[in-house]
Amino acid sequence: MTGTDLSLPPATTRRELRERERAAAGDALAPGLPVVPSALPQPAAPAQAFPAAFPASLPASLPASPAASGVVPEPTMLAVDLPPVARRTPRRTIGSRILSLTALLFAGAFIVGVTVPANALDVFAASETADTSTLAAAVEVPGQVVEVDGDAAAAVEARDGFEVKSWAEVLKSQYGSRDYNYRMAGWTGAVRWPFPYVVPISSGFGDRAAPCRGCSTVHNAIDLTPGAGAPIYAIADGVVIRREPRGGSWGNNLTIEHKINGHVVTSSYAHMQWDSSPIELGQTVKVGDFLGLVGATGQATGAHLHLEIKVDGEYVDPLVWLKANAG
Asked: What does pTM read for this prediction?
C-alpha cells in the first residue's frame, strides 16, 4: 500500500491518519505484504460514496515468506485502533451546592456573633424622642434613701477629728501604762532588790499581750532588764528548794524559800545563762549572795531576769512587794 489507499474509508482521527501513514511506510520497505484491516469496529465514517474498487475479501493465498527469499525485512508494528473513551466530568448536584453555601453563611454569622459586641451594632440605642423621665423611679431600690435628722446631721458636721492608733499603741495603752518607777535608798537590810541599782522593767505583773509564741498572757512575775551578763543576787536569806540548770521554758532557774515577817515567801529566778549559777539544790543562801548571770535561756525574747514571788503560796506583784519590804 503506497500513498493514499483509496480502498479504505477516510480517516476520522489524527491517530488513525498517523497509523495509516506508518503502514504505508512499512509497505514501501517490504512490498508484497498484504495489509490486514483491523478486526475491531471502526467509527462511522461520514456519509459518502465508497469507491468501487473496495475489495470484497482478502486474497486466498499469501506470498512466500520473506525469509525464504533471503531478505528479512524489518519488523513492522501493526496498529490496532480502539474506540475513544469518553471522559465524564463529575457534576455537583444542586443540593450539595446549597448545603455548602448554607454552611459558609452559618460559619460567618457565628464568627460575627461571638466577636462583635452588641452595642457595636447600636441596636440598643435609646430613641432620642423616648420619654426617660420615669427611668430613675423604675430602678429605685427600697432602703437606699435614708432620712437624717437635722440635729444629728449638725452634730456630725461639728464633731472633732478622730484619732488612729496602731496595734502597738493599743497594746501599750492596755498593758504598758503601768508605773515601773522605783527608788532605792540603799542596798541594805534583810530584804533587798535583786540588783544593787535601779534597772528597767520590760514587763509587769498580771495580764499582758504574749511577747512570743508560747509565752504566757498572764504574767505572774516582773521582767527586769539590766543587760545580758549582769550578776543576780538573793533578795533574802533562805534555802534553795528548786534547781533546774537545764530547765524547759524557764531555762537555767532556781527557787529559794524564805521566812519573812511570819510568812513563807518564795522567790524564783529564771532565764539565767547556762552554767552561770554555783548554787546547789538544798543549799542555804544569805541575802545578797550571788546566784547567777542574766541570760535568755529557755523561752525568752531577750536577756532578762524573770523574778517571781509568792507569799504563803499566792502570787504577788514583785514590784509592789519589794517597794514595801526592801531596804
From this structure: 0.47
DSSP 263-285: EEEEEEEEEEPTT-----TT-EE
**Cα 181 to the chain's mean position, in Å?**
56
Cα 198 from Cα 140, distance rounded (Å): 71
> What number of H helices and E strands is found in the chain?
6, 12
Q: Which class is domain 180-325?
A: mainly beta
Phi, psi (deg, nearest 5) at residue 63: -65, 165
Pairwise CA distance, residues 260 & 238, whole Å: 10
Q: Answer for the pair 307, 268: CB distance below 8 angstroms, yes or no.
A: yes
Q: Give the closest residue to 227 by CA, choosing from 199, 250, 203.
A: 199
pLDDT in tens, 29-82: 555 545 445 444 555 555 454 444 445 554 555 555 554 455 555 555 555 555
Could you give the percent of the chain with pLDDT greater than 70? 57
- Could you tell me which residues come within 8 angstroms of residue 15 by beta carbon, excluding any fewer than 6 positions away? 81
Residue ranges of the chain that CATH labels 2.70.70.10: 180-325
Residue 311 CB neighbours (<10 A): 15
Query: At 210, which amino acid appears?
Result: A
Helix or strand run (H / E) with residue 90? none
